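in:
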């Protein structure tokens, strides 16, 4: 399956997966502890600087971030129509900041490293009958399928642009759904052959 992980080494690649995951969780939580637009604007500026510092490593996720920014503008516009300007600004800035943090983690961290961290975090639940390996695998598959969704979407959109000169838009939903179902079936078959369940 496609991955957003970038082989372009950056300063953030050298940080441990656990450290990055913890920082993302803490910073992501802090975004929702304030409604002050100027504080969130400062956070957005910090996220923009983080994004810029990663350079070419973000190339694989630039179209994804453009989509996020478009969605944030739509959210802000909807709230503006309802005359909730501060709420619209806060919601849009939160969406962009959280997405930028998630992309920074994704493009600089190997999926296998994240799985190892999740297994360690879930280890204390083993006496309760929870299998850390199985839960970590489920979370890792969810993350990989999210990545694969956007990678596949980009490939289909690029192919459509080459054929027609225009973006695919909603016309890509049907082929994208077929591709995702096929990928799901292949992964399910591989897991069944490997694990027997």
């Amino acid at each position: 399956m496609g991955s957003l992980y970038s082989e372009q080494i950056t300063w953030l690649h050298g940080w441990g997966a656990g450290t990055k995951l913890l920082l993302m969780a803490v910073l992501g939580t802090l975004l929702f502890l304030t409604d002050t637009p100027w504080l969130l604007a400062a956070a957005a500026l910090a996220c923009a600087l983080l994004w810029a510092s990663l350079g070419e490593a973000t190339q694989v996720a630039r179209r994804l971030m453009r989509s996020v920014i478009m969605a944030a503008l739509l959210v802000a516009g909807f709230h503006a129509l309802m005359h909730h300007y501060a709420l619209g600004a806060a919601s849009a800035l939160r969406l962009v900041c959280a997405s930028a943090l998630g992309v920074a983690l994704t493009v600089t961290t190997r999926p296998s490293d994240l799985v190892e961290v999740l297994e360690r975090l879930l280890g204390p639940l083993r006496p309760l009958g929870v299998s850390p390996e199985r839960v970590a695998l489920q979370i890792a598959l969810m993350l990989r399928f999210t990545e694969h969704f956007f990678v596949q979407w980009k490939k289909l959109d690029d192919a459509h642009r080459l054929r027609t000169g225009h973006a695919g838009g909603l016309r890509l939903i049907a082929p994208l759904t077929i591709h995702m179902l096929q990928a799901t079936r292949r992964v399910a078959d591989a897991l069944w052959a490997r694990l027997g369940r």
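note: The radius of gyration is 19 Å.
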